[in-house]
Amino acid sequence: MDIVPEPIERYAEEHTSRPEALLARLAKETRETLESPQMLTGTVEGRFLELLVYASGARRVLELGTYSGYSSLSMAAGLPPGGRIDTCELDESRAAVARRYIDQSPYADRIEIHLGPALETIGRLGGEFDFVFIDADKPNYVNYYEAVVPRLTERGFIAADNTLWSGRVLDESENDEGTRAIKEFNEHVKSDPRVTSVMLTVRDGVTLIRPKGGD
């Protein structure tokens, strides 16, 4: 099931600023060499993340799920001077691809890849975050959410990816682990009195979440 009809998705991409040459090469290598290339952030969501970071003025970004680094590099383009990104990846081969492209970019001194379980990394990192992008293993989404909500700055917020899960959130017959986890996460956020959220039909669904105390 397509969240957005393919011709509309293609039209949106055609009317979004094209990725820089480095990101285009990264996207090509990701599709050709890595498992699960559908996980690639891509042009539309990449620009969306860049503009979220830019518009919010986020100086400290936490990313859960580096994959090949496309989203890290996209967000880095929106950082203000002195901004930085901590990005977490469990798979060493994916992290190696991301590191290679980050090292070629103008943002190598702004992005740090943390290899290992993201919850452990969150525990080690000190301080608060202006923006958190959750795009890692789905069964841990609620755990990631609960770990970072108390760590947001006064105007900090979260973007959670894949919250429409290719439409499987609507299918009562779908009972695989990933689908159950996304449904649980969506209901958890919806019923959380601490936050205000909006679910968007960007790509595979992106939910934006901010604490109500962030007025």
Structural class: alpha/beta
Record field, number of beta strands: 7
CATH class (first level) name: Alpha Beta
CATH superfamily: Vaccinia Virus protein VP39
**Strand portion:** 15-25%
Radius of gyration: 16 Å
Concise structural overview:
The chain has 8 helices and 7 strands, in the order H-H-H-E-H-E-H-E-H-E-H-E-H-E-E. It has 215 residues and is α/β, with parallel strands linked by helices. The chain is globular, with a radius of gyration of 16 Å.
Characterise the protein shown here.
The chain has a seven-stranded mixed beta sheet with strand order 3-2-1-4-5-7-6, with helices on both faces. It has eight helices and seven strands; from the N terminus they run H-H-H-E-H-E-H-E-H-E-H-E-H-E-E. The protein starts with 5 loop residues before the first helix and ends with a strand. With 215 residues, the protein is α/β, with parallel strands linked by helices. It is globular. It has a single domain (6-214), classed as Rossmann fold. The longest helix is centred in the N-terminal third of the chain and has 15 residues, at 42-56. Helix 2 runs antiparallel to helix 5 (92-104) and helix 6 runs parallel beside helix 7 (141-148).
